[in-house]
Design a protein that fits this description.
Two copies of one chain form a homodimer.
Chain A: H1 2-28, H2 35-42, H3 46-53, H4 56-71, H5 83-94, H6 98-110, H7 118-136, H8 148-168, H9 174-185
Helix pairs in contact in A: 1-4, 1-6, 3-4, 4-6, 5-9, 6-8, 7-8, 8-9
Chain lengths: ~190, ~190
Amino acid sequence: MARRGSYAKGVARREEILESALDVIGRKGYQNASLKEIAEVVGVTPAALLHYFGSKEELFTEVLRKRDEHDGLDPSALSADDARGAFLDVIRHNTEVPGLVALFSRLAVDAADPAHPAHPYFLDRSARLRESIADNFGGEQQPSALDPDTLARVIQAVSDGLQLQWMIDPTVDMPGIMAALIDALLPPTAPGP
Amino acid sequence: MARRGSYAKGVARREEILESALDVIGRKGYQNASLKEIAEVVGVTPAALLHYFGSKEELFTEVLRKRDEHDGLDPSALSADDARGAFLDVIRHNTEVPGLVALFSRLAVDAADPAHPAHPYFLDRSARLRESIADNFGGEQQPSALDPDTLARVIQAVSDGLQLQWMIDPTVDMPGIMAALIDALLPPTAPGP
């Protein structure tokens, strides 16, 4: 029982560190921070960070996973009715957490190396995001000129690509451009009788 | 005259180094290479690289500029008739130079820092690319549901975003997805009488 209690405490402590890292990175950015600097702002020792995550790259990858949880990326979390609104809300929220947008983009590049801890994360996230988009946009109710998988890849690409533009020029209207594209590819259908 | 001759030689030598770096990076990648490693594969001394470019970041930025020259990114280089084909050719060519795609993506992220030498490059490239897209796609001949600036931002975002997907999963069909999107947003018009 003592062991089980200590395991549960470890899980809780790991969660606390993740939530704290998510908050700090969102507000202040990660700016190529060292493990020591991250530990300091999160309020733990570098040894504790390594104990719970193994490396800085693993911690960063888990921060992105935790963010996806908060953003409700899973297909089941969106209903068809509010998929467009929920998706645009995530993009709007991103404009308030520039540090997470920068971390996501940087890790997306680094993860091209199959040995990087974020490589499986990005493969998996991409598959889930496409499933979510294919389930919630298009379909018989809302026909598109693009097949569901192509539509999903395009929406994902625009989301990631607009972030690169926005990081260099923060006046780029990410949610406005995405809304215009969704409306162009998926014209709203008249409500049924 | 001697000075002028020596200046011209310097310009020519700088060009040679750039072309060599463009070729080597395209084929072998840049893989976080040190200045010393880059100098070695390009076939010059690290001191020569610093003399001509000032820093590794400046060299990388100039490599991307040189690539744009080769790709004919300037608006004047495309005629309206073959804009779609020329644009897709560039994307097809990109699949053969993974090292340049990786370098471009990594610098796009790093350039978010206004002090990075690639920051003005990306701002300027983005403006020229949008001008090129607005001039060559859409317009009265080929009306789109998106206004020209939004259309340009979307096409640029899809291009950059598909690269992130492709680096992680090389089976992603970048030219095929882009072609489908252009056709969906800009349906080919029937030839006039």
